[in-house]
Amino acid sequence: MSLRSQSSNRPFPPSPRRTGVRDLRAWPRTAWHTHPAGQTLVVTAGLGWVQERGGQKREIRPGDVIWIPPGVEHWHGATTTNAMIHIAIQKAVDGKVVSWLERVEYEHYRD
């Protein structure tokens, strides 16, 4: 049996929703960033961290679902000793899903 769309190559209709899976080895992390419609992270494997600007760094584990509200500056990534895999779900607003800011400095990231 072959599953494919009769009308086009796309399996789903166009959508403003963007989803991606990230496999982060130990140490990698995002830069500080925001999402115009917020972001949901679903941790599927490993151990990681998430932090909102001005807040405490939080440990995240498989099964954790994290909601980051629209416009909140944050970063997320693997720990210094463990990899992490997560699904990131965000909606595009006027074609934009993220605004990248500066790098996360070592003092915010280290254990």
TrEMBL record:
GO terms for molecular function: dioxygenase activity. The keyword Oxidoreductase applies. Signal peptide: none annotated. Residues 1-22 are annotated as: Disordered. Residues 1-10 have a biased composition (Low complexity). Keywords: Dioxygenase, Oxidoreductase. Residues 30-84 form the Cupin type-2 domain. SUPFAM superfamilies: RmlC-like cupins. The keyword Lyase does not apply. Pfam families: Cupin_2. This is Quercetin dioxygenase-like cupin family protein. It comes from Methylorubrum rhodinum.
